[in-house]
UniProtKB/TrEMBL annotation, chains A, B, C, D:
SUPFAM superfamilies: Flavoproteins (SSF52218). It comes from Rhodobacter ferrooxidans. GO terms for cellular component: membrane. This is Flavoprotein WrbA. Pfam families: FMN_red (PF03358). Residues 6-197 form the Flavodoxin-like domain. Keywords: Flavoprotein, FMN.
Length: 198, 198, 198, 198
């Protein structure tokens, strides 16, 4: 009997963050959570998306998952966000979704939930820390309880050592070290969320 | 003979940041800069905008200024951004514009320019610092040279003392203290940009 | 029977943050926590401290509370830090204490604890947000669970609206609004810590 | 005839940041700057330092360079800081030096100078971005003009791609890629500082 209802909203342009979200979803379910894996709606013009084969293909792949809605954010008692960096910040697609949550925020429907985030970038130091920390700043406005991995498991070190959240370098393989780090972050979030929801 | 070409891209939902941008534009022109006052394109659905009278009215008011484009960002050798906070980050409308600048970034067309930012929020401490610092993080990716006001003039103290950039509390009057602080930030940016462009 | 053992380490140069810590301690005890109110050791040279009457007097006043030690950090299962801003960061005295915690961090003795922070500055926007967010970044390295007030109570708005943690403008009175905001932050931290410790 | 007077204050526990500072100093001198390479005074108790052979040896090695003073900060018209990360923030030794600069700040003696920073950590993502961005936040209080490398040279990508400032992973060799990235950051800083000082 699960008390944790975890929303995993992801935005992915070429697939990296969708894969991260799927790995996290599997680990969270194994830890007993009820999971909604949710794609952030694309807001770029269709012509722009279609002009890049990789982006177009990803839009089709992401369509397997439902679009994240404010109602999902009310339903969940824990959130795990996954999105690439854009110049050290979250993509506008994710910020656009966040901007629609003013009503939920105002009524307190986002408060007191355990939250974590993951990201990716082209370079090893391409804004991964800044992107995750910027999202946490936003979540503090919601009254979220921030549950980052820290260095609470050797898997964090093994995957590059980002204590704020798992960071993937685009193009790198999702090897066992990557999966273990993502799994640890998701499992820890579920553990903490279960305590907070008790 | 001005060497400073200043783009002032603003996003404004109810008018506060447009007023800030206009005050800054006037000060920058007085300091000798050639100025383009540019509205960030609205990306919210028209039905959402029209459902709020204040927002709808602001869209009409902002239409007096041209929409910011990547070409404006290439033209300018200095930028002054003005946008409200959204949960401690910039609005998705501004992030959407920023996300379109990948091509300019890649060719170096955004590099080595003097940049500053202003913001507003409903509360005195409602994310103003975080919003400006988050934008500066993004501008560092571009190779921008960050020119914040610091405490380089008594006008900064008199207007509340935000060293990162002018912050307006929504609904407060644009009194002489506010105008002086905005004017100082804009004038200082022009001064530094002129040196960098020399 | 309390499960929450709360350490409140404070650094105070002229008394503001000691008062904040004392108000928080009272609220936390009322919420059922066992509290250790702890002063951060002064690291400035004695001659410098003694050259300023206000600083010297505060050192004497702070002596009523024991010095924070790494053992206190192991004992507690929740932390509430209070310290003024120094150019948008925490004072070196507090950073010096934090720098001694490498051993506790390495063995995991700091992990999984609920943590929050408060600050003060001379100006309304003088780095309060940045100081608290910078401390939270550090706590994420420890595997802390960040419990900021957000906007989870009207007391936050009434006291200026800093969702990251209570911020005092130096010299302002500790009126009912200030006490309510500090009390809410402390009580919420105890509530969450009790859940995490259960 | 150099117009750039560059202070390079470094703090180094085991030698990494001293080496980085020395590489930067050489590049800055080659670019025409007058350079003061300055060690940040050790503030840890002598017994603690002496209990670790590596730390003790570094204190001896650093003694070749003069201690940074507030007078050096007045003398210089550009600063390049180098210090390791401590839980995502600068070491308390550096913060202690920064805390002594209140007088210089108050009189404006720190304002309008070009500033940049470098760091190191044990892990690839161990707080490097956060440490540099936290320092830049502090420098904004001074009225500094922030000159980070961005992605203004292929050397940044080749060395791991940190646009905020060069980041070294402790223990890695200072190979040509590292030297080129440090050299680019220092040279760019000197170039911008020369323009600002003209």
């Amino acid at each position: 009997m699960s008390t944790v209802k975890l929303a995993i909203p992801f935005y992915s342009t070429y697939g990296t963050n969708q894969t991260m979200a799927e790995i996290a979803a599997e680990a969270a379910r194994a830890a007993g959570a009820e999971v909604r894996l949710l794609r952030i709606a694309e807001t770029a013009p269709e012509a722009v998306v279609n002009s890049q084969d990789g982006w177009k293909a990803q839009v089709a792949r992401a369509a397997a998952h439902p679009v994240a809605t404010p109602a999902d954010m009310e339903w969940a008692n824990a959130y795990l966000f996954s999105a690439p960096t854009r110049f050290g910040g979250a993509p506008s697609q994710l910020r656009a979704f966040i901007d629609t949550l003013g009503g939920q925020w105002f009524t307190g429907a986002l408060a007191n939930k355990a939250v974590s985030a993951m990201t990716s970038a082209q370079n090893v130091h391409g804004g991964q820390e800044a992107t995750i920390l910027g999202l946490y700043t936003t979540f503090l406005h919601w009254g979220s309880v921030i549950v980052a991995p820290g260095f609470t498991d050797p898997a964090v070190f093994a995957a590059g050592g980002n204590p704020y959240g798992y960071s993937h370098t685009q193009g790198a393989a999702f090897d066992d070290a990557a999966k273990a780090a993502i799994g640890h972050q998701a499992t820890r979030l579920v553990t903490m969320a279960a305590k907070l929801a008790a």
